[in-house]
Amino acid sequence: MLYSAWLPEPRYEESIEAEFKNYADWKFWLDPNRTAEVSWDEAATGEHDYLFATWDRE
Questions:
Q1: DSSP letters of 21-51?
Q2: How far apart, in Å, do the first and last CA atoms of the chain sit?
Q3: How many Å apart are CA 11 and CA 32, to the nearest integer?
Q4: Distance CA 4, CA 17 (A)
Q5: Rounded to 5 degrees, what angle do the CA atoms 29, 36, 51 make?
Q6: pLDDT single digits (tens) 10-45
Q7: Residue 15: its pLDDT value, please?
Q8: Does residue 30 contact residue 36 with C-beta atoms inside 8 Å?
Q9: Using CA atoms, how far apart are residues 46 and 54, in angstroms rounded to an integer?
Q10: Which H or E element spans position 16?
């Protein structure tokens, strides 16, 4: 089976990341109680299995 054979190669798009970062005031935490905040750069490394994120949009 070649289910993923039609997918394009993954690539990094700096403009898309910039648009995403500017969409909201992103905050990331290691736990749902928001006691251990993680920076954007640390979250972007992918070293954590999961992170909790919220933002306020007005």
A1: HHHS--EEESSTT--SEE-HHHHHTT-SS--
A2: 46
A3: 31
A4: 24
A5: 25
A6: 888 899 989 988 888 889 999 999 999 999 999 989
A7: 93
A8: yes
A9: 18
A10: helix 14-23
For residues 33 and 49, give the distance between their C-alpha atoms in angstroms, rounded to a whole number.
Answer: 17
> Domain coordinates of the chain in residue numbers?
24-58
The DSSP secondary-structure symbol of 57 reads: -
Q: How crowded is the C-beta side of 11, counted as CA atoms within 13 Å?
A: 7
9: how many CB neighbours lie within 10 A of its CB? Answer: 4
Residue 58, pLDDT score: 54
Residue listed under structure tokens 């993680």: 38
